Amino acid sequence: MPRSVNSVASRARRKKLLKLAKGYWGKRKNVLTVAKHAIDKGLNYAYRDRKTKKRNFRSLWIMRINAAARLHGYSYSQFMNLVHKKGLTLNRKVLADMAMNHPETFEAIVQQVK
Question: Who contacts 84 (Cβ-Cβ below 8 Å, separation ≥6)?
């Protein structure tokens, strides 16, 4: 009896992998085994860096708040301590945006927490 090979599914699997490798350079885009390794590595980096992005943004917000707070005579930690004691529920993202784009609003917050 002849061997039955599900070539439709096999081709679909290969096409799916090569579609993920679109835009890669050299053999990484059209040789299945090389593409498979490149895709695995790329997906690992993507997973890792989705977590790293959150850390990077938080540190950026902290730097911006620190710079703006120092213009008003406070360090970052002193300013955030006053914000928490006052019970303001503004997060770092919003505070950093105010410090960057709306300095007069940030100054009003500084006056409020004094």
Answer: none
Q: State the DSSP string of 5-63.
A: --HHHHHHHHHHHHHHTTT--GGGGT-HHHHHHHHHHHHHHHHHHHHHHHHHHHHHHHH
Split the chain (114 residues) into runs of 10 and give each run's mean pLDDT.
87 95 95 96 97 97 96 94 91 94 94 90
CATH number of the domain encompassing residue 61: 1.10.1900.20
Domain total for the chain? 1
Cβ burial 60-90 (10 Å sphere, 16+ → b, else e):
ebbebbbebbeeeebebeebbebbeeeeeee
Q: Which two tokens stand for residue 54?
A: 């959150």
| pLDDT recorded at residue 89 | 87
